[in-house]
Amino acid sequence: MRLHRLELTAFGPYPRPEVVDFDVLGADGLFLLHGDTGAGKTTLLDAVAFALFGRVPGARGEVKKLRCEYADPETPTSVSLELTVQNRRFRIVRSPEFDRPKKRGGGFTTQPAKASLTWLEGWHGDGVTRIDEVAMVVEDLLGMTHEQFFQVVLLPQGEFARFLRADTAEREKLLEKLFGTQRFLDVENWFRERRVVAGRVLDQRRQVARDVLGRVAEAAGEEPPDERDDGEWLSGVEKRISEALQEAAQRSSDASDLRQVFDAVLAETRLQAERVQRVREARQALDAQVDPGAWIAERDAARRAVTVVPAHQAITRLGTTLDFALSDEAKAAAAVARLGYTGEELRDDASRFREEAGGLNQLAAEAEQHRRDLRRLDEIEVVEHNVRHRLELLSNDLEVLPEKLAQCRTQLDAAQEAAARLDGLKVRFDAATQLPEAVSALARSEDSLRLAIDVHQKAKDVLLQVRQQRLEGMAIELAAALKRGRPCAVCGSPRHPSPAQPMLGTVDAADEEAAHAEEQGALDQRALAEQARQAASLRLDGYRDVLGSADPASVIAEFRAAAELARTRSQRQNEFVGLEARTRDLGAEKGRVEQELAGLRVEDAKLRETVAARAIRLDEARGEHADVLTRRAHLLELASALTAFADRRATSATARDRVEEQRSLASSLATEAGFPDVASALAAARTEAQLAQLDERIAAWERTRAAAEATLAELPGVDPAEELDLAGVEARAAEARASAAQASADLSRFTKAHERVSELAARLRAEWTSLEPLETEYAELDALTDVINGRGQNSKKMTLRSYVLAARLEEVAVAASARLQRMSQGRYSFVHSDEAGARGTRGGLSLDVLDDYSGRERPAKTLSGGESFLASLSLALGLADVVANETGGALLDTLFVDEGFGTLDSDTLDTVMNTLDELRAGGRVVGLVSHVEELRQRIPTRLRVHKARTGSTLEVVAS
Fold it and tell me: Are 436 and 376 contained in the same domain?
């Protein structure tokens, strides 16, 4: 990092614009910020820090009051810093939050903080305008946080004196901030988490072994041991279960033999009991037999009555037919009587009535036409009423149409005007609708930019790590290029007795190039993300310019209302044309309706005259009836009723004759079958099911008698009175079977238990075998985790993070001792100790001073004021060198040392200045901040910077 130019306005004690050109001041590598106490020397360093990180170091950063109270209220507070980092030159402009006068009215308003970063050389990407993004870019380029920068680049007055005298806890906090030991804390946490996971796995496996042990005990029916078994309990269980299995097998064999004996006795007893029961049942069946003669007589009589039953059924059917015929005859007689007929010659009178009805046909046609004409008169009346009503409606419609035409014309004009305004409103509508998406796009582009910055930062970290690893392994890389007999490029010796040997994981130039290419690719993606964010911002600004101060919702509503009204233009046009056409159509239709009404009135008059003349002729022909048609219909109905009555009378006579014939036939069939009358035959008749039942009953009697006789013939020597103790034999056999079943069940149970115990015992031994390496591995991991976390075998009680900090502090002590010895003329040097503290407290961060005059170590708190300054300055410079190497080594081209020179005498000051002169090697620029007059005499060239109303002057002096 090299500073070029600093500009500040209304910042700190400086009310007017001030400029510091570091290129001029640092041309020889050394310059001085000189002035009395309170002249504002440290404020320039605060301005540099504020421009880079937006904050100032020390307690001044907690106040957050950066604006000059003496500046003109209209003058804004700003700081501009131009610098080069990693061959990229850029300018940062920042303004803190401050109160300014309101542009309208009285009082003040808060001006928010702003920041911008503009690329000048070495980079062509878009600038950055967000405060957080500027901070991320600066930290990414510098490779250090603001805390590291304040400690390493702006060596603050008093800070390292406190660090020199601090205890272990305070010193550890500062070193953690500077060296970033989070990754080692992650390693400690990783080991602790790994131990927890391994312990959980081990506990699970132990629990599995305990579960298998419990299942072994459950299968064997014994209690499990309280502690882990070494195999003796398991062997005993297997032996006991084997002995129990042998005893159960012997008991099962004895019980099975006894069961077979009792089963043979039971079978013989059951066979003899069955024979006795069969003989007993055969004798009982023969004794219970009855005479089947009545069944046989009933069956024979039923079979003789079979021919009489159908004849009797035919009589019943014919009687039903006769009943229906008589009923029809009665209905026909009632119908003739209802029509007023009193004669006897049915068929002759029917012919006469038909002839009389035929003579009325001509008049009937006129009567039908008369009815149609009457209906037509009614229709004409209804139609005439409807036509008059329709004419009235047409007249009403023609009266309101002019008003509708005027209203439609007004709506049509409004729609045409909306259509004309639509194009102008469309531009603002598009801007209003796209505005939310543009806001979202800007947010997404900002998220993408932040992600690209994170990715670039990670790639940068990887690159720095690779470079650091390559530097650490540079000896191996240089050793690979050594050739026997050729001088070394470093020391010039042609002999190479012990060159560095290659190591696993060594980083070479190809790895560095790959990491650099990855970092450049991430940087390109970051530039693309910045361009996308700028495009999204411009797009959003364009939409807001189009909308102006208008509310997007009002613009959208106005456009939609105009669009909706414009869409009705063609509809309104069609409505207007339709109303004009309807006016013409209604006028023509009104004329047609008036003509139709006149025609109906003429037709009604003519038809009424014709109907009146025809009514006189029809009244003479209708007689007693309502009209001619009614009289003709009455004559035809009477003729039909007389014909039907004659037919029904003939049908009933025929049915009566057939019933008498069937009764004679049934009586003859009963006599032939041997019955005295038909009733006796019907009483003897049986259904088919009843006849089948009689046959089955007779056949069963015959089968029972034959079976009983056959059984007695088969078992001639069996006594039916013999009694056998079958129940006792069955009880003894059941007892033997139960004993055999119980013994078999016991054998099966012990067999399964033996198999189960053998299987589980093998599994248990396998689990014990697999647990041994896990327990060994966990013991090693547990011990290593304790060591890494400062416990167990760790005699120094140092965690890994503390160990790393101790190593860094040791490097700082070595680097600081080289300068302290020169500045103290060889008297003092730093001594670092990694021994544990008192009462077992953590060690590793002890830092004392070795006094060469006495040869003893002494606490830093015993140094005098000047000696403390020399020690603090040496420690600060040593720490700066170590941190610079940690963060890349090539960043710290500019360094500031703030105050403390007033405590030195002339000789010591000469020694300190010679040491600071050495810092200029390699192009480094060193800035001193002091009020000591002797420093001012040593560096004569100056640049004045005027402070506020106090009139004091700060001189920026360059050698």
Answer: yes
